[in-house]
Amino acid sequence: MRGPRRVARVFLRAEWRYLAMLNYRVEPALLQPYVPRGTELDRWQGATFVSVVGFLFRNTRVLGMPIPFHRHFEELNVRFYVRREEGGEVRRAVTFLRELVPRRAIATVARLTYNEPYRALPMRHRIGAVPPGGETPASVEYAWRQPAGWSRLAVEPVGAPEPLRAGSEEEFVTEHYWGYTRQRDGGTVEYRVEHPRWRVWQVERATLQGDVVALAGPALADALREPPSSAFLADGSAVVVRAPRRLP
Asked: pTM for this structure?
């Protein structure tokens, strides 16, 4: 009889807040070279997506310890969606093409622990005013400085945040609780991300401006120059990221 599955230790605890998500439909062939071994592309209604996501890290702890001057910061990432079946369980996951943070130590630890494609760049954010008694900010913006200058991602949410609808594109984008990362030798590591279901705002305007070639590479640049196929803002929550394990 198989014993209980060992639960990986907690590597990181934090809060992720104000997740601005711009989503682009792309041809599967553009993503196939980046799919980690042992996984396959995940699709929503037959389409494959790349997302550009900006959000805030808050109250970050690594291995249970707060790191001075590294608890609160921005992240901007470019990601797509994969899946893997193990023991009858379908693990829906994200794979990152690029992750930006403003703290060099954070980028270094993530590269060493997960081999994630982190890069440290100057970053800033702006959360527009929230009306008294409300929850909806006037705007949410993340910016990062590349050699060609500042780039930015911005959304203008409308209405009130709502629970995710079953089967919606918003649910597909947010409800991936695993991560897979290709390793230098061609292998793959897997890690689990834990958080409750988020609420989302619809947005009336979404903007991605700047050097998309430096952000995501030339193969995806044309797709990211077009308006996103969808965009929304998630409120976020406390999160737990488990330590990685290498797939056999």
From this structure: 0.93
